[in-house]
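job 3f2a | input accepted
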Amino acid sequence: MQSGEDSSGPAKGPSTGQPTSRTGEERDLWAERPGQARAAADEQPGRGRRSGKPAAGDKDDGVGKEPGWERSVLEKLAFASLKEQRARRRWNILLRFLFLAYLVFLAWLFLSRTQWTSEPARGLHTAMVNIQGVIAEDKPASARYLLPALRAAFEQSQSQAVLLNINSPGGSPVQAGIVHDEILRLKAKHGKPVYAVIGDAGASAAYYIAVAADRIYVDKASLVGSIGVLLNGFGFTEAMDRLGVERRLLTSGEHKGFLDPFSPMQASDVEHAKQMLRQIHQQFITVVREGRGERLKESPEMFSGLFWTGEESIQLGLADAYGSVHSVARDVVQAEKLIDYSYKRNLADQLANRLGASLGAGVGTGAMQELQGEAVPWR
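job 3f2a | predicted structure (379 res):
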């Protein structure tokens, strides 16, 4: 090797005699391991640090980027994650606040649930109580809601009479009996007249309540009557036999499976059920006779469960005359102003009823269906 030769110049290969480019070897090495390019260049003896710009023909594999770019990217990711956590925390706080506000709103509804009249009573007026829909314990036409409304209507000193606005196909004899007896008690205590006005229908249990009034008014097309009792259900014994389903009913009493829809009917059970129906029917007949008195023109069909039009009901003595709530208040009571004392169920009552129904349905629905309901309907 010549002493004056530049060490950085091209050197001949040992066999070929061709010049070998050191830069080319380094470039191939860097291309295979781009992440070690700068370190490899700095570690070679006799070579200075490479320029930040890539040489001609070199690939830009991120080596020429500004120093510290990895740190900048990590900082951006960290700040983005922090912002996301803060946003999630704000949403959690907002949702908790809304839930708390909802609970406060429900509590306020429960505390303000004793609003019985639709407007304050001012001046002489006719107090009206609506009896609408099916008469049942969990319905607006139940003793739970009707009794407080009736008491408020009777106790109001400026109400001249109490008007029962009836539009119901009937329902529970128990609920109807409670309301009927309370009307008689309040009427005797306060000495105010009571008038019943039947709209589309005043049948069965609804008519049971109506006979507590001093007079009953109807429209000529109203449906009135249906003085009878029924107990209905279904039997599935033959269908179960065809499907190969076996009924396994264990009882501790001889008649504990009374009227079970999945078991054959027993003659003794049928006779006992009919006896109960006859007894309740006789109670209904007695109430109608006491309420209508000599106005009633009895016939063999009157207590058979049939219902009649308003026109026929006047002829049979089941009703007294034609009239509406407005005409009775104006012409009979002579206090044309009507004030509704009916209880308006608010959101809290509806939610409570729905919650109670949902909880009770999972526990007692099957048993109640086997017993054919809580009460015998007058329909």
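job 3f2a | The longest strand covers residues 159-168.
job 3f2a | closed
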